[in-house]
Every structure is written in structure tokens, then in C-alpha cells.
Design goal:
This protein has 9 helices and 9 strands. It is an alpha/beta fold. Helix 2 packs antiparallel against helix 3, helix 2 crosses helix 8 and helix 6 runs parallel beside helix 7.
Length: about 270
């Protein structure tokens, strides 16, 4: 199996809960409409590239999540400037705007996303680094491309689990992408992402797993009332603190950097 293609046991039927308190259909439609308008605005402004202030990009990403009726809570510090590998656990398509809200970055994405309507062109114009996950021979070239972007001072965002998980279970961070940080000599910024029900415990309503479709996930999130996304910007790992990608990946894994809410998470090899 390729290091880019780990599998998760999570499935919509077994892991994803339906909305406990669903919002009305007209409101859900309005939420989806607002998201479409925001995404189209992002596509229209994408050609401006680096001329768009980073703070505007952050606000736009937060607006997309909030337009879906999701409350966003940020804790921890701020991501440093300069070349940076930004990593997080992976639960939902919501993770992408949430991670970008921490710091605008070039997203590491599978090549299939390039063909997606709306999201594909937006990712390409945003400078995404596309990887061929089913070609193990392409791994060294991909790591080299990531390292080059990091040396140039860019932030690169990745989800090292390599697959989405439901949020109640989590995979281990794969090591390959961390080699790029070692080669470029840049720090790593871990981020922990969680989804909860307002006033309650963890929620899997936002999970986008298994054979779930994007449209089904969008509709489920739009219909869910009281969904909260928690984004914890964990302590940055300075360049040079770890000398192997194995130790660096282990240190960046949420739950191994002092984040108490992860201590009971299930880590699956």
C-alpha cells in the first residue's frame, strides 16, 4: 500500500450520526446558497493571488464555515511566518477552510480534486500541490516539490493521516510529508480539529468518510443545528528539534503535544 493511501475503517453507516436537532429545510438551503456565493467570490478573486491580504483570506475561510451554521472556536497561539509545514488530523471537508484560517497555505491535495467542479479550479488557483497517491515512484518527486515550496517561504498544509476519520477514532500521522520539513529546515505547526454538539459531547455529523458523497455531507452539515468546530493551534515544533521523520511525525500527532482532549482518542496504526 502506498504511504499516501492509508485506509480508515470509518463509514457513514457505522460512524456518522444524523442531526439530533435538525434545522428547517429553508434555512439549510439558505446556508448552502451562502456558501456557494462565498466560494464563487473566492474563485473570482483567486487570480489576484498574493495581493490579497492574508487576514482577508482567513476571514473568508471562517465565513464559509460559519455560513454552514457551524460555530468556530479557536484556541492556542498563532502560526509563525515564513516556511512552515501546517499539519492537522482529518475529519471533514470543513477541515480545509479551518486550517487555512489558521494560516493561508498551499494545500497538499490528491490529483482527483483537480477534476472536482468548483473546488478543483479553486484549489489549483490557490496554489495546491497535487499528489498522485497511487504512484509510489512519484513520492520522492512530491517530497522534493513540497520542500522547495517550504524553502521559498511558503506555508504548506497537509493532513498526514492520509484519509478522513470520523473524529472518535484517529489514524497515525504518516511520515512522508515530514521529510520535506526536515529537508527544508522549517518548523512544523500542528493543529487539532474537533467537532462537537453545542452543550454536548463530540459529534460525527461533520465527518466525510468512506463512500459518503460531498453533496450528502454538505446537506447533513447544513441541516445540523448547534455544530461547533474547535481549532486548537498547538505549540510549534522548531526546525532541528527532531532529526528523523518518524520522531517528527510522532511529535506532531495531536494528543502527543499536551492537548488533553485527545488523551482518550483511539489511535489506529
Amino acid at each position: 500500500m502506498s504511504v499516501w493511501l492509508p485506509s480508515a475503517p470509518c463509514t457513514p453507516g457505522a460512524c456518522v450520526e444524523q442531526a439530533r436537532a435538525a434545522t428547517a429545510v429553508p434555512r439549510a438551503v439558505l446556508r448552502l446558497t451562502a456558501v456557494v456565493v462565498l466560494v464563487l467570490a473566492g474563485i473570482a478573486l483567486a487570480p489576484l493571488g498574493g495581493r490579497i491580504p492574508a487576514e482577508w483570506v482567513r476571514r473568508w475561510c471562517r465565513a464559509i464555515v460559519r455560513a454552514m451554521g457551524v460555530t468556530v472556536r479557536f484556541t492556542g497561539g498563532t502560526a509563525p511566518a515564513g516556511g512552515l509545514l501546517l499539519v492537522a488530523n482529518h475529519v471533514s471537508w470543513l477541515d480545509i477552510p479551518l486550517l487555512t484560517a489558521v494560516r493561508p497555505a498551499r494545500m497538499l491535495a490528491k490529483t482527483e480534486i483537480r477534476q472536482w467542479p468548483v473546488a478543483g479550479p479553486l484549489a489549483a488557483r490557490g496554489g495546491a500541490l497535487f499528489i498522485e497517491r497511487d504512484r509510489i515512484r512519484a513520492l520522492p518527486e512530491t517530497v522534493a516539490r513540497i520542500a522547495e515550496a517550504l524553502r521559498e517561504g511558503a506555508a504548506v498544509a497537509a493532513f498526514p493521516e492520509g484519509s478522513t476519520w470520523c473524529g472518535r477514532a484517529h489514524g497515525r500521522f504518516r511520515r512522508a510529508v515530514f521529510q520535506a520539513a526536515l529537508d527544508a529546515g522549517v518548523p512544523v505547526q500542528p493543529v487539532g480539529l474537533r467537532y462537537r454538539q453545542e452543550g454536548g459531547g463530540p459529534s460525527t455529523a461533520a465527518a466525510f468518510v468512506g463512500e459518503d458523497t460531498l453533496l450528502a455531507s454538505l446537506w447533513r452539515v447544513a441541516r445540523t443545528r448547534g455544530l461547533v468546530a474547535e481549532v486548537d493551534v498547538l505549540p510549534v515544533i522548531p526546525a532541528g528539534r527532531h532529526t528523523t521523520r518518524k520522531s517528527l511525525a510522532g511529535a506532531a500527532q495531536p494528543g502527543r503535544v499536551g492537548e488533553p482532549d485527545w488523551t482518550h482518542a483511539v489511535l489506529v496504526p
